[in-house]
Amino acid sequence: MAKLEIKYITKSAPMLTDSKDNKGAPVKFWELRGIRMDISAGEAVGLIGMNTASKSLLLQIIAGNVKQTTGFITTKHPINLASLSEIDNSLSGLENIRKVIKQKEVDELKGNHLTNAVINFIDFGQWLYQPASSYSLGMKARLALGLALFIEPKVVLIDEVLGLLDRPFFNKVAQKIQDLKDVGCSFIIADTKQLYMEQFCERTMWLQFGQVQDFGPTKEVLEQFTFAQEWFNSLSLPEQNEYLADKQFEQVQFDVNKVYEEFKVEQFKHGYTRKDEPRMRKAFFVERGLDPVVVEQDQKDKQVQSKQPKASSNFTAWALGALVILILAGGTTYWWHAHQSTSTSQVAKSKQSSSKSSKLTSSQLAASRKAASSVKAAEEASKQKASASQAQAAAKKSSEDAAKAASSAAAASSSSLAAKRANAQTIEVVDGDTLESLAEKYATTVSEIQSLNDLGSSNTIKTGDTLYVPK
After folding, report:
1. Among 10, 370, 373, 402, which is 20 to 30 Å from 148 by CA?
2. Residue 243 contacts residue 260 (beta carbons within 8 Å)
């Protein structure tokens, strides 16, 4: 959906002349004739045309300052207008800022923040406290742009103020416009100079004598506008006057009912019938507010949203009912299985009791036989226990003998090692020593050094270790 959409905008004005002989002349002429435009989020649309094209009037209507004769303006966003007409000359620059912020109905904290932002942007210094009536056109343009670009900018209309700026401040404004476009702010920039359309606008509308001549990509529209200007300038003065007179006559003879017929065709495409025509005519000529198609679509959307909770509650009730049924079914099944299990258990117990009574005599006989076999098994176990005791005693004696032999061997080994060490000398291992180098140095073997120091088969020695070597 477009961020801003205008349809069928017309504006009539009284026909004023200084001649007393024009009693039969039309009483009004049409400044705007069936303007349609849509703008997307983050888009800038140019509005170009010669003076008297009614560009400023169209912006005043979009901003809500002037009421259109027919047509609809549809948007959900606030609209800011940067125009010299928005400056109150009786107030100072600071008072103008506070006035606009108050109209936006923002809280005090945010209002102070916005005030400081505008002041820092326009850079007025002491001129901030002077009445706006003392400002130059360039200063008024600065103030108008500061207000429009900083105080809740969603849709910004710029009415021929960019050409009043000095180059440094224009660059500052250009950067701010681009930053706002990047976050979704939309612009309509009206001017007679093509430079601003080329720099900021993706699309451009060429407005001439209150009527749209072309609307599309900026480059294409500007080419057509340039050709038209060159053609007009190539005419002689009488030809130019004749051309202007013809176009102004068309404004007088314009039939607004043709625009209304276009509106009716659109309504019929959306499902409206002849029965709806009185209501549609009232919306077009009298109410002139939001597009009725959009309004009714919003109402349908709200009705759908209001029905959603009800549908959700119906689904919840259905789910709860299904759950209750499942619980009841499960309980019934459980009871049936429990009943079957109880019956089976009772039958089994009955069979067991009868079996016990029938097997009582045989059980007694088996018990006597088991007692006899137990006596015999006890005698056999006693014999085996005696044999095991004898074997255990023999094993204990053998173990003691082996321990004594091992002790004797260890003592002999210890005595032999002590004897060897008595005939050896001690040294301290220094950095770079290995068992091989020490064996060569003390005219012995690696195995001999290992034996003296009880190293086993290890060749690892560390700096600082104390070792025994032969003398």
Report:
1. 10
2. no
